[in-house]
Request: fold
Amino acid sequence: MEVNYWNPDVETLDRGQLEALQLERLGNIVTQAFKTPFYQKRLSRAGIKSPANIQSLDDLRKIPFTVKDDLRQSFPKGLMAVEMDEVVRIHSSSGTTGIPTVIYYTAEDMENWTNILARSIVATGCTSKDVFQNMMSYGLFTGGLGLHYGTERVGMTVIPIGGGNTRRQIQVMKDFKTTVLHVTPSYLLHIHSKLAEYDTTIDELHLKKAFLGAEPYSENTRKKLEELYKIDAYNSYGLSEMNGPGVAFECVYKEDMHVWEDAYILEIIDPATGEVLPDGETGEVVLTNLIRSALPLMRYRTRDLAFVHPEPCKCGRTHWRLSRIQGRTDDMLIVNGVNVFPSQIEEVIMSVPEVGTNYQIHLTKAGSLDKLTVRVEIYSKMFTGELGELEALRNRIKDKLKASITINAHIELHEPGSLPVFEGKAKRVVDNREML
Ligand code: ADP
Ligand code: ZN
Reply:
């Protein structure tokens, strides 16, 4: 397999040098942090009187965690470490879990972020010959402009189409012979269900790759999309608090995502106790941003659950890899006492070949018990067959779910196009259980 690097020196640094670089950059960030009212208070309460108190990477653990609410409460300037006139860009989170949080960038911060995005893009094998269709929404959300700057830096032909308007997306793919997409997995599934309606076959498209991110999805969904579109799909992870996309990205080997450790310090903690977990154990991802001076964030609790594997990768990069995100701590459903993440349900239903491109999870009360209903769209050819076949399919999905998540779910089969569609981050769960 051909492996290309954007910053070969940094991407292959030996671990000792990489850690030395992290420590040096951490020093700069702690210095910035002391310029903000929020961290002045937070750090001094933790007994950290000046940047000199952080002498090693182990000292990082003396720094208290920062959480999403800290950002909300210190809006607009409590976490700002530069004057407003040095700020060249503002972004915000999507607000999936409440009021969006706001992030500031200086010109140098933008440069640093663009650089790690270019690195991520080149790691997937893209070159200046690629035509890139950016289906993520532009605006305050970081998915649009972030990848835009990165792909432009690599010299790709960038089509800033943004989200939505499926007919036009398909037409543009044909007109400009798009080779690379950036899109949420849920929207890419939906687009496939529309190809026939717009008289398009996969063979008329020139797609080679897709960057999939912004929402949790399963390995089976990746596989399904790769087969449906005959592409390689790369997992892309980021969050606005850590600049946006480009925190971790898969390389050509697609065996989980390299976290760019010269830019971010990664820790995995037990979300209940805050204890740092040993490598390989699943817990909450905690990140320290080493490359942004306008708004320093240290030990930020992402609420995303994943694990790290610290083996070298075949591509030669020394930066450790992060597993697929299994869900957000605030995503977890408790169904009659059993914990389940929506992505576990997705993993099962997307392994069933008759299942189409959309699904939804409903929770209701039946007496004192929770009732989990999974609505799945199935390919229309299934509806022309025997009723008995549909019943058998329903039972097959039900049994597979029972085997995997130990919950007896009710399965509803729906025709293609009947469930709600999302052009950005999908809302898969409808919880109608009354809160007592
Ligand atoms: P919000 O927290 O409001 O959704 P962002 O728009 O910044 O804010 O989105 C970041 C979040 O999106 C991440 O914390 C994570 O939960 C989710 N996310 C991003 N990329 C991925 C991915 N590849 N896999 C799973 N989840 C992802
Ligand atoms: Zn690799």
